[in-house]
Amino acid sequence: MGMFIVLEGIDGAGKSTQARLLAQWFEKRGYEVVLTKEPTDTPFGKLIRKLVLIGGKEGIIDGARISHEAEALLFAADRAEHVHKLIKPSLEQGKVVISDRYFYSSLAYQWARGLDLEWLVDLNRFAVRPDLVILLDLPVRESMNRINGRKIKTEFDKIAELQRRVRENYLKLAKRFEEIKIINALASLEDIHNDIVALVQHEILGEY
Ligand code: TYD
Question: Does the model's pTM come out above 0.70?
Answer without folding.
Answer: yes
